[in-house]
Design a protein that fits this description.
The protein is an alpha/beta fold. It contains 14 helices and 19 strands. It has a six-stranded parallel beta sheet, with helices on both faces. A five-stranded mixed β-barrel has the order 15-16-17-19-18. It has a three-stranded parallel beta sheet with strand order 7-10-11, sandwiched between helices. α5 links the parallel β4 and β5. α13 runs parallel beside α14. The two termini are 36 Å apart. Bound molecules: S-adenosyl-L-homocysteine, iron/sulfur cluster (SF4) and FE3-S4 cluster. FE3-S4 cluster (F3S) binds next to α3 and α7.
């Protein structure tokens, strides 16, 4: 990663009297410089700085993308705002389940109302949902007030797209079907000073039959280890203490690289970086989780003791239909191995209820696994039909009432076991990273344990971003109340 000063020098050197260079990232540096001029002109017209608000739906990877969007917006002269009543609003969308789509339409309706009284306001929509033709068509037809639409593959072009948008009086739409490009060295604005997500790979090749992600995020591509490590060194120099390595299936990291490297090796290398005190990763596909990786999590003190291991279903028949490529036995063996090797590690999971053809007996199988593994936490989702996926074409969709009933009984077991697992740390001292002031009570600070559980304790805001030792006094279901020790 080129550092911020180097990027600034390159942006300053761009020659706007000539056509934009073709190569990246030089082309985007050119457009950043150009957008700075355009934003400055408008800000002079309005007699005040322009504000920009970024709204993000979806997973950590989208959250990281939104930091890149805000990086560009701030760089070209916008002031960041939390309020959608801004001069520029961008929605970074998710389409993994239908409720994510519905949330976008709700927010857009609201922003469209604001724009009626603020004709200069610009509204942009990007991200996973825009990679779907039906959603794109709907926006084009019914949300004419949107100024700019782009997708997941060309997000690195944001500065260029901003310039196009300013110079056009029509909706600008730029969607790519796929890409193998990874553009490095663009500005990023982190949400937290002390922690950061880091993409190690993009896309997904697994094609689980219910999932839209491979269609909207494209084929799996890994970033070169040197780029990942350089970025994290830069983050450490900037005061970041915790990083989360991000990918849809981090365990298949490194395939297709010039110098292949496994995820376990990359994780060990990241732990060598001075200043980085804790390393997390997300997500591990059970089919590819290696014994080496379990050893690294066990042996490296910097690696958080937490493995997110999505189960989806505990029924072999459903797992096969889902194209998950593991069985309940192989999954259980893996979970047992983790529990044996790293007894302190939290295992969390994702579960889908209501996949086509799922019977009560299949759900019983899933519940059986929940009881055996004793998840520290589980995210449970009702199956959502995603157009274009193989599961959407299956004719045996489960009636809503059955899904609801099974969802409720499964959730009950998840909550019981998670409460039990969470409670076992009571009385221990934990090294925790303080993240924020408690939302309900400003006298309390909220910190995260290595295993991802939250603990609240009396303290002040100067502790944010610090590692401290906390005694876990009392478990309140899914979190702890504690007392600071040092
Ligand atoms: N790559 C990750 C998951 C990314 S999506 C993995 O394989 O584990 C996050 C979660 O959303 C998935 O684990 C799954 O539980 C859920 N999900 C994905 N598609 C879904 C759908 N169509 N309906 C309901 N839940 C879904
Ligand atoms: Fe979706 Fe499966 Fe890829 Fe995860 S691994 S993103 S669930 S296709
Ligand atoms: Fe959603 Fe896209 Fe992530 S569909 S879950 S934001 S990869």
């Amino acid at each position: 990663m080129t550092d911020r000063n180097d990027i600034e020098t390159l942006i300053a050197a761009a020659d706007l009297t000539r056509p934009a260079p073709a190569e990246e990232p030089a082309r985007q540096y050119y457009y950043i410089k150009k957008a700075r001029q355009l934003v400055k002109e408008q800000s002079e017209e309005r007699g005040r700085p322009l504000t920009a608000c970024s709204v993000c739906f979806g997973c950590q990877m989208n959250a990281r993308d939104s930091e890149k969007l805000m990086g560009i917006l701030k760089d070209v002269g916008y002031e960041e705002s939390e309020d959608e009543d801004s001069d520029f609003v961008i929605y970074n969308t998710c389409t993994v389940r239908d409720n994510a789509d519905q949330r976008l339409y709700g927010r857009l309706g609201f922003a469209g109302g604001i724009k009626k009284h603020k004709p200069w306001m610009k509204i942009a929509v990007c991200g996973c949902m825009m990679q779907e033709q039906a959603s794109l068509d709907k926006l084009r037809a019914s949300y004419r007030f949107v100024d700019l639409i782009f997708g997941t593959h060309n997000i690195f072009k944001f500065a260029e797209l901003l310039c196009t948008m300013f110079e056009s009086d029509r909706m600008v739409v730029d969607i790519w079907k796929d890409t193998n490009q990874i553009v490095e060295d663009l500005p990023v604005s982190r949400k937290y000073a002390f922690k950061s997500g880091v993409n190690i790979m993009f896309g997904c090749n697994n094609f689980c039959s219910y999932c839209i992600v491979p269609y909207v995020r494209g084929r799996e591509r890994s970033r070169a280890p040197k780029d990942v490590l350089r970025e994290i060194e830069g983050l450490a120099a900037d005061g970041v203490k915790e990083v989360m390595l991000l990918g849809q299936n981090v365990n298949s990291y490194g395939k297709g690289l010039e110098d292949p490297m496994s995820f376990a090796e990359l994780l060990s290398e990241v732990c060598r970086i001075d200043g980085i005190e804790r390393v997390r990763f997300m997500t591990s596909h059970p089919k590819d989780l290696s014994p080496e990786l379990i050893n690294v999590v066990r042996d490296e003190p910097k690696v958080a003791k937490h493995i997110h291991l999505p189960l989806q279903s505990g029924s072999d028949r459903i797992l096969a239909q889902m194209n998950r490529k593991y069985t309940r036995e192989s999954y259980l063996a893996l979970a047992e191995r983790i529990r044996r090797e790293i007894p302190d590690a939290a295992i969390t999971t994702d579960i889908i209820v209501g996949f086509p053809g799922e019977t009560d007996a299949d759900v019983d199988d899933t519940i059986d696994i929940i009881r055996r593994v004793q998840y520290d936490n589980a995210f449970t989702f009702i199956y959502s039909k995603r157009t274009g996926t193989p599961a959407a074409a299956m004719t045996n969709q489960v009636p809503e009432a059955d899904v609801k009933r099974n969802f409720d009984r499964l959730l009950k077991v998840v909550q019981e076991t998670a409460r039990m697992r969470t409670a076992i740390w009571a009385g221990r001292d934990e090294h925790v990273l303080v993240e924020s002031v408690n939302e309900q009570n400003p006298e309390l600070m909220t910190a995260r344990m290595s295993n991802n559980t939250l603990v609240h304790f009396p303290g002040d805001a100067s502790l944010i971003g610090q590692f401290v030792n906390v005694h876990l006094d009392e478990c309140h279901g899914f979190y702890y109340m504690g007392t600071m020790l040092n």
